[in-house]
Specification:
single chain, 129 residues, mainly beta, 5% helix, 47% strand, globular
C-alpha cells in the first residue's frame, strides 16, 4: 500500500486589487462639516479666479488624507472654492447654500505660489438636514 503524502494547504497571496481601503482618504483631502456664512462669485484665490466661493465656519473634521500642509480646525472660518462643475449656475448654488446651512464637504488642498497660503477646492458637498 503506497504512502500518501501529506499535502500542504494551498494559500493564495492576496492581490493588490483585493485589498480594501475604506478608511483611506485621498492625499491632500479633508472631509468636514461646516456651516455656510456666505457665497460669493468671481473671487480670486492664489491668483486664480473662481466663479463661486463659500465662506464657512468649520464645525468638525470627519476625515483627513495624508500630506495636508495647512491644517483646518474646528471653529475656523475659511473660504472654499467651487470647481467649475459645481458653479455653472451661481444663482441656484447660492439659493441651495443659504446662510447657516449645515453642509458636509470633501475638499482638496492646493498650495499657492506662496506655500504659506492654501486654496481649498470643493470636490463634493452634501447638505445636512
Amino acid at each position: 500500500m503506497p504512502k500518501k503524502k501529506k499535502q500542504k494547504p494551498k494559500v493564495e497571496k492576496p492581490k493588490f486589487s483585493d485589498l480594501k481601503h475604506h478608511d483611506a482618504l485621498e492625499t491632500n483631502t479633508v472631509h468636514l462639516v461646516a456651516v455656510i456664512q456666505d457665497v460669493n462669485r468671481n473671487i480670486s484665490i492664489c491668483g486664480q479666479k473662481y466663479n463661486a466661493v463659500t465662506t464657512v465656519k468649520v464645525k468638525s473634521i470627519t476625515g483627513l488624507g495624508s500630506s495636508i500642509v495647512n491644517m483646518i480646525s474646528a471653529g475656523q472660518e475659511i473660504t472654499f472654492a467651487f470647481m467649475k462643475s459645481h458653479s455653472k449656475d451661481f444663482d441656484a448654488l447660492k439659493q441651495k447654500l443659504a446662510k447657516d446651512q449645515k453642509v458636509s464637504f470633501k475638499v482638496r488642498e492646493g498650495l499657492c505660489f506662496d506655500s504659506a497660503k492654501t486654496v481649498y477646492e470643493i470636490i463634493t458637498f452634501e447638505i445636512i438636514n
